[in-house]
Amino acid sequence: MKKNAIISLADSNYFDLLNELIDSIKQFKESDKVAICILDAGLSKDQLKILSSKVDEIKKAEWDIEIPFYKKGKEWLKSQISRAFLPKYFPNYDKYLWIDCDAWINSWECIENYFKACENNKLGIT
């Protein structure tokens, strides 16, 4: 079982960027030891089908806290809230690394540094 997870979120408008992020992660052999998990904030069925063959888990993002009514319908805002609830969505991992879907991984060393930063129950954040 994989102990660490990389997590991102996207809606259908950001699918291409998310797909590129996943490919940038998977280009490294070390990625085989890390789960890739996706929070769905409005991906299409076709997009979910493509992603399901590339990642370990996909879960529908929820409103994990009460929000003002005027923010309902802005599903992408769930990315701001769901980060605090990653163990709820993906409970089987020891460490979680959030990467925005518009990022790209050029060096596996950066992934290792983030996971190392949160050893001994610490938080690594930039």
Give an overview in words.
The protein is an alpha/beta fold. 31% of the residues lie in helices and 17% in strands. A four-stranded parallel sheet has the order 3-2-1-4. The chain is globular. The mean pLDDT is 90.
Number of E-type strands: 4
Distance between the termini: 28 Å
What does the overall shape look like? globular
Count of helix runs = 5
Strand order of the largest sheet: 3-2-1-4
* SSE string, helices as H and strands as E: EHEHEHHEH
- Nearest-integer average pLDDT: 90
Q: Which blocks of ≥5 consecutive residues have pLDDT under 50?
A: none
Radius of gyration: 14 Å
**Share in β-strands:** 15-25%
The main pleated sheet reads as: 4 strands, parallel
Determine the fraction of residues in helical runs and give it as a percent range. Answer: 25-40%
> What structural category characterises the helix and strand content?
alpha/beta
Q: Short description, anyone?
A:
By secondary structure, the protein is α/β, with parallel strands linked by helices.
List keywords for this structure.
31% helix, 17% strand, 126 residues, alpha/beta, 5 helices, 4-stranded parallel sheet
In terms of topology, how is this protein built?
Layout: E1 4-10, H1 15-26, E2 34-40, H2 45-52, E3 57-60, H3 78-82, H4 86-89, E4 95-98, H5 108-117
